[in-house]
Amino acid sequence: MTSSIMQGARILSLGSAVPDLRLSNKDISKMVDTSDEWIVTRTGIKERRILTDANKSVVDLAVLASKKALNKISMDPKNIDLIILATSSPNDLFGSASQIQDRIGAKNAAAFDLTAACTGFVLAVITASQFIQNGSYSTILVIGADTLSKWTDWTDRSTCILFGDGAGAAIIQACSKENNGIIGFQINTDGRQSKDLSIGYQESTKADKSTWPSNNNGQFKYIQMNGKEVYKFAISKVPNSILSCINKLNIKIEEIDWIVLHQANQRILDTVAEKLNISSNKMITNLNRYGNTSAASIPLALSEAVELNQIMYNDFIAISGFGAGLTWGTIIIQWKC
Ligand code: COA
């Protein structure tokens, strides 16, 4: 890959943000027929953060995470060329990225949304790296942010235990080819299983068909999920995605220092580690505290790991996202900070 790029791309800074309100398993067990023990055993989740302020949205979390990433490296937001917001819960269906551009003062940046649910951050980093490695842009802000609590049916115990709200931001910048840190990727989609995880739009049954066009007052439904199918999909596709990606780069699985998977379920993380025959110590996890934060989960976990000084210069990191679509994908990063 290095030979075909005009310049390198590396993650320079990360930031994250979560709402203050913690919703514990005990709290949820007062809402639906479940228990802390069931949730911890089946998912590993103990609590999640929920955005309760009706005046706040995914944009507020994304702005906070972005400002933290910028402040860490004292970067002037006017230096950002492009903002990519990976989200499936925008506060505007036409896109929310432009609101972030305005609120952080990145007046020179183009901005757009990218929708790919829990694979969103991986796809956004890959997209950003293409813009940088082909020489088009120098500095890109990539954000993964979701507030799926707004799309959760809080009477459905099979889904409401899983999701939480959050945002993570990464500043990706051009560098020399030798310092290139985003060294490989692999992405896939299987639309045949799109119904296994979706927030579908439903036409109103009360719509007046005699007049057209008319406002039919349809609405998006809550999260619909076939948990068993999604579970089977994740544990079969993710290990293969990582292996095919590292094989192309001639990297052995033993050389991978860290694995950062989309934080969906501890049992998925454990099974993937087992299938890859890697130590669970290499698997970065924080889902016990945040649940599944969709596009935010990978940058949240990566940001915390960097803050804890777990990740060292030149470490190889395999990052995999998976989820609705169904989509999945891996990026291999060599840490260059
Ligand atoms: N509390 C208590 N019991 C529950 C429950 C809950 N929150 N949710 C389901 N159950 C019950 C079911 O009704 C079922 O009862 P039954 O045997 O009497 O019919 C039983 O527990 C087993 O349900 P099942 O759906 O088979 O559980 P599971 O082991 O598949 O675990 C998930 C459910 C959702 C935790 C699991 O399927 C999963 O994590 N899937 C992946 C989901 C995911 O990660 N989605 C996002 C990807 S981006």
Automatic annotation (TrEMBL):
Residues 112-191 form the Beta-ketoacyl-[acyl-carrier-protein] synthase III N-terminal domain. Residues 248-335 form the Beta-ketoacyl-[acyl-carrier-protein] synthase III C-terminal domain. Pathway: Lipid metabolism; fatty acid biosynthesis. Keywords: Acyltransferase, Cytoplasm, Fatty acid biosynthesis, Fatty acid metabolism, Lipid biosynthesis, Lipid metabolism, Multifunctional enzyme, Plastid, Transferase. InterPro entries: ACP_syn_III_C, ACP_syn_III_N, FabH, Thiolase-like. Belongs to the thiolase-like superfamily. FabH family. Homodimer. Catalyzes the condensation reaction of fatty acid synthesis by the addition to an acyl acceptor of two carbons from malonyl-ACP. Catalyzes the first condensation reaction which initiates fatty acid synthesis and may therefore play a role in governing the total rate of fatty acid production. Possesses both acetoacetyl-ACP synthase and acetyl transacylase activities. Its substrate specificity determines the biosynthesis of branched-chain and/or straight-chain of fatty acids. Catalyzes the condensation reaction of fatty acid synthesis by the addition to an acyl acceptor of two carbons from malonyl-ACP. KAS III catalyzes the first condensation reaction which initiates fatty acid synthesis and may therefore play a role in governing the total rate of fatty acid production. Possesses both acetoacetyl-ACP synthase and acetyl transacylase activities. This is Beta-ketoacyl-[acyl-carrier-protein] synthase III. It comes from Gastroclonium compressum (Red alga).
